[in-house]
Amino acid sequence: MKKIYLSKAKNQIARHNTIRDINRQIVLNYVRVRSPISRAEIARETSLQRSTVSAIVDDLQSLGYIEEIGTGDSTGGRKPTLLQLKTGTPVAIGVDITPRETTIVLADLGGNLLQKETLPTSPDLEYMNEQILTRVKALADANEGHDLEVGISIPGIADQITNTVLYVPYFQWVNWDIGHQITRATSLPVTIDNDANAVALAELWFGAEEVKRTRNFIMVMISEGIGTGIVIDGEVYRGENGAAGEFGHMYVGENAPVVCSCGRQDCWEAHASEKAVIRRYLTNGNDSRSGMFDMDHLLRLAENGEERATSILKETANYLGIGISNLIIGFSPQAVVVSGRIVKAWDLIKDDIQAFGRRSIRQELSGTQILPSALGDTPTILGSISLVLARKFASAS
Ligand SMILES: [Zn+2]
User: Which phi and psi (to 5°) does residue 260 adopt?
Assistant: First the structure.
């Protein structure tokens, strides 16, 4: 049950979807989840009229969203034509900005990357603005005529109403109106969101089956920092000003191995991010290696059985477990999904993470699964295109 706020209700009426739009989303989702599927099956399962389904399918075919793939078995009459999502048609331009590099991709409705280019992220905002604008415009021009939209994932806070990047702490960027600039240059709609929110959306639409089935989960992204994306009832919870989910800065304990990006040394991020893992490894070791020594290197050492790398990953897993158990106590989600390169060592760390999860919650509430992400090494790239794809698949009502 949701409370109706009159001010919000007015907005909803002004931009409410027509029944046809809602039915279109339902048909598109049937094709996405249940393909290969025929028009007759969709009509049967949705109780929509056959003619309505056929008209919507024609519409989706002309947009390049779905395609026919031969015929299925007949149940008496004519053999039904089967449908599936069309791959290879560009529908999304994703811009994934991370502290290290910025990736610009072109993707189809299935989340497959059709084109990809990467540049190092510079702290110089004017330069980055020009680079992104030029590259997105070139992709838009080269793919004119397609139903394209742009999604931008940023390591900071974005205002989705004004389509502005409010704050990127890593580079001290403030009030960057990249969304407006792209729309002005290309006429394409743009969605901007925090990287952890974008990855949570990617988990919801493209993650492992057991994650996609849950309506309430928290995604914990371990990278340079720690970001969390909260999904409640199949929707990302953004909070006031889109600033929810900053659990990376919750208090975990004094004397963390590194200073947090916020300047304190007691945050979860300072105990359990990749920066913390690497610092633990290099402490009392050869500090001259710092800079060259990264998470991939440490994961390889652990994989080859190096004792120090192994024990540091397990120690870090304890801190991950402390934070995750706090999230479970507060939200009682169906699942917590851990994302980032550390997931490669899942077999090594899962028991330590789960031990804390179990220790800290009341027995009768211990139903939360803690799962590794299935999105791979670069979840934020998939996050950036999910900002577009979720809009195409989700009901806006
Ligand atoms: Zn902090």
Answer: -70, 160
